[in-house]
Amino acid sequence: MNSLIQEMKASMAFVERNFNLAKRYAHMEAVFVIWNVVHALTIGLIGKFMGGDDPAKVQHYVLFLIVGAVFWNFLRLLFFETADAVAWERWEGTIEYTFMAPIYRLTHLVGQCLYAVIYGILRAFLVLVLTILFFDLRFQAANLGLVGLVLAVGGFSFLGLGLMAATFPLIAPEKGAQATDIIGTFIALVSGIYYEVSVLPDWLRPLSVISPGTYALRSIRAVLLKGATLADIWGDLVILMITGIALVPIGLWVFQRAEMHAKRTGKLKRSG
């Protein structure tokens, strides 16, 4: 029990370190938040154009598209913050020390993932609230709590995928960080970020069934657009929990194998 408590404290130390790094580069974090807001507003204005003079249609289209924009930003943040477990260490010149330190890799990655989920939810809610105020949208405030639950539960599935994506900067120092966009963009394609998955070609639609993004988006949109309750979206939440339970261990295993390869081939270095 004492050992478990010590590992949890060590994981929280990584969370604290990452928040301190975010404070150190607060000006850059502000730039990214502003970019997220502008991106969401741009997508929302498309919905306002589609709604025309009908307030009900405007509400529906704007919320539908804003949810996709905010969710996509949340997904990208999870991927990049998880991948930064490698890229940031390499940039700071501490990658050798961190990866050779007498600490379990699980402890390290749990801290990195916890930070990604917490920071991702906080930033997603900030962007969502600002866009709602911009378009003067109306819905029950209590729904935001349910949206947060969906993001928290679904976040673990994306963290598992993010751990797999984090192997790119580990084994390809030059362009690996950019390669993490590959998985995220593919998930966006098959999950219906800005459209219903029913419009996908028949040969591509089955992939939407195995994407956790499909269930997270469907649940969030049901909550905000239709006033769905926890009972209404429980089935999707169960699927998200199951995929999270499956993908996180798989992601850890893939990351561990990539780390072993990087150490064996000499790619675990401060620069390059």
Descriptors:
272 residues; mainly alpha; 11 helices; 82% helix; 0% strand
Describe the structure.
- This protein has one domain (10-265).
- By secondary structure, the protein is mainly alpha-helical.
- The protein is built from eleven helices and no strands.
Please state the structural category.
mainly alpha
Q: So what's the overall shape?
A: globular
Helix content: over 70%
- Kindly give the count of domains: 1
**Count of DSSP H/I helices:** 11
- Residue stretches low in confidence (pLDDT < 50, at least 5 long) are none
Mean pLDDT: 81
> What order do the SSEs take from the amino end to the carboxyl end, as H and E?
HHHHHHHHHHH
Largest β sheet strand count, sense and barrel closure: none
Proportion of residues in β-strands:
under 5%
- Taking all Cα atoms into account, the compactness measure Rg is 19 Å
Distance between the termini: 41 Å
Number of strands: 0
How are the SSEs ordered, and which strands pair?
Layout: H1 2-24, H2 26-51, H3 55-92, H4 95-100, H5 105-135, H6 143-165, H7 167-171, H8 176-191, H9 205-209, H10 212-226, H11 230-265
Helix pairs in contact: 1-5, 2-3, 2-5, 3-5, 3-6, 3-8, 3-10, 5-6, 6-10, 6-11, 8-10, 10-11
In short:
The chain is mainly alpha-helical.
